[in-house]
Automatic annotation (TrEMBL):
<dbReference type="InterPro" id="IPR017517">
    <property type="entry name" value="Maleyloyr_isom"/>
</dbReference>
<dbReference type="Pfam" id="PF11716">
    <property type="entry name" value="MDMPI_N"/>
</dbReference>
<dbReference type="InterPro" id="IPR017520">
    <property type="entry name" value="CHP03086"/>
</dbReference>
<feature type="domain" description="Mycothiol-dependent maleylpyruvate isomerase metal-binding">
    <location>
        <begin position="8"/>
        <end position="120"/>
    </location>
</feature>
<protein>
    <submittedName>
        <fullName>TIGR03086 family metal-binding protein</fullName>
    </submittedName>
</protein>
<dbReference type="InterPro" id="IPR024344">
    <property type="entry name" value="MDMPI_metal-binding"/>
</dbReference>
<dbReference type="InterPro" id="IPR034660">
    <property type="entry name" value="DinB/YfiT-like"/>
</dbReference>
Length: 182
């Protein structure tokens, strides 16, 4: 089995469980992703699942809409089903500017894990990532950081000690402060 798909499945499942645990009273809370409160961040995750499903099937770029629907798990399951097809990993995505499909899958993993952590921090919950997954995300984020910042997907790097856990260092690379509190 594709190791990246396993990591994506784990992160998406963890994030889905977190989204489903949210109460309406938490939707207005601020998140470490400063442009989003909890509700807007869940809306962003719903859009991301739809986008990454489309891209896996060589579909078009799907613009984000501001319409929270509350169906992240269903969208995430459709996205994972699309990535389970071997052809989803072949070639490049025209919708994502010619990016190789495995890079797009890494972006999905980065998005779901980072925003899962954002939601957990905003709501006082925990969000754990397997050490192997954290190391893989750190390596990917470090390589993609210049382009990620240029395209506005990553913030400016936050200094994190070199001996910090890999997930904390990953968060720092993408512009999150692992010590963030609401």
């Amino acid at each position: 089995m594709n190791e990246l798909l396993t990591m994506l499945r784990d992160a998406t499942g963890r994030t889905s469980a977190l989204v489903e645990s949210l109460g309406e009273d938490e939707f207005g809370l601020p998140t470490p992703c400063s442009e989003y409160d909890v509700r807007a961040l869940v809306n962003h995750l719903e859009w991301g699942a739809t986008l990454f499903e489309s891209v896996a099937g060589d579909g078009p770029f799907v613009p984000q809409k501001e319409e929270f629907t509350g169906d992240f798990r269903e969208r995430a399951e459709r996205m994972l089903a699309a990535w389970e097809r071997p052809e989803a990993w072949e070639g490049a995505s025209e919708a994502m500017g010619g990016m190789p499909k495995p890079v797009v899958a890494n972006l999905a993993l980065t998005d779901f894990a980072a925003h899962g952590w954002d939601l957990a921090r905003a709501t006082g919950r925990s969000y754990e990532v397997e050490e192997d997954t954290a190391r893989a995300m750190l390596a990917f984020a470090t390589q993609m950081a210049p382009m990620g910042r240029e395209r506005g997907a990553f913030g400016e790097e936050v200094a994190v000690p070199g001996d910090a856990p890999a997930f904390d260092r990953f968060l720092g690379v993408i512009g999150r402060d692992p010590a963030w509190k609401p």
